[in-house]
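Below is a filled-in request sheet from our internal design queue. Each sheet records the structural input a requester submitted and the sequence that came back. We keep these sheets so that new team members can see what a complete request looks like end to end.

REQUESTER: design group, bay 2
PRIORITY: normal
MODE: inverse folding
CHAIN LENGTH: 219
BACKBONE (tokenized):
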């Protein structure tokens, strides 16, 4: 697998953030290709990029001639192509648990608060900022309530979402906590989530993936 890895990313995209963490946990070198989601009307809509990702979204991972889209698909591709260290556990039961935790974020919380949803509220329905903020907080809090229960009441939870090794669920959780903090969500009711987030961010793989540490941050 000697082909170059190229990640089309936006510094503040939580989906791209997930993949950056996974790449770092695997110790893989990759080139970041910034795709600014706001500048120029959104560079994700430019024809050259749409050829790579017809959904007009990030992230997109290019590995040689292969192009992989959707953050969870990318992370599982990385786990299959570079099996060590693992992002998913060994047993089917544990893998199902980890995938379920990851999908609460990637399938339920994040899509409701994605940029294209918020832009539609603003530009088409003219929803005031305060109401958009309430919408964002509502779905993060609801999703985090479920996550807190699942993580806090299960002996399979360790220092990280599953056991003592960070994996797929942590790749999803940490960027969503970043979003929660960005939008002013009070995290006092989610101590397990915050504890796991802090344990993750103490690791170089997570710290290097932070939005503010990206080459396109705020440019």
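RETURNED SEQUENCE:
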């Amino acid at each position: 697998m000697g082909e170059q890895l190229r990640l089309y990313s936006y510094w503040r995209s939580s989906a791209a953030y997930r993949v950056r963490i996974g790449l770092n946990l695997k110790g893989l070198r990759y080139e970041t290709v910034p795709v600014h989601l706001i500048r120029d009307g959104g560079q994700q809509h430019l024809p050259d990029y749409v050829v790579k990702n017809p959904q007009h979204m990030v992230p997109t991972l290019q590995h040689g001639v292969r192009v992989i889209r959707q953050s969870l698909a990318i992370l599982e591709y990385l786990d299959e192509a570079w099996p060590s260290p693992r992002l998913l556990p060994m047993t089917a039961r544990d893998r199902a648990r980890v995938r379920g935790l990851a999908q609460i974020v990637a399938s339920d919380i994040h899509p409701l608060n994605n940029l294209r949803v918020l832009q539609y509220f603003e530009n088409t329905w003219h929803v005031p900022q305060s109401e958009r903020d309430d919408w964002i907080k509502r779905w993060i809090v609801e999703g985090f309530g479920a996550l807190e229960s699942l993580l806090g009441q299960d002996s399979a939870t360790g220092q990280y979402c599953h056991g003592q090794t960070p994996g797929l669920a942590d790749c999803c959780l940490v960027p969503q906590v970043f979003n929660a903090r960005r939008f002013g969500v009070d995290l006092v009711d989610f101590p397990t989530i915050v504890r796991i987030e802090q344990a993750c961010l103490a690791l170089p793989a997570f710290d290097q993936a932070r939005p503010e540490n990206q080459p396109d941050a705020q440019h």
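SHEET NOTES:
- The first strand starts at residue 5 and ends at 9.
- The two ends are 33 Å apart (CA to CA).
FILED BY: M.R.
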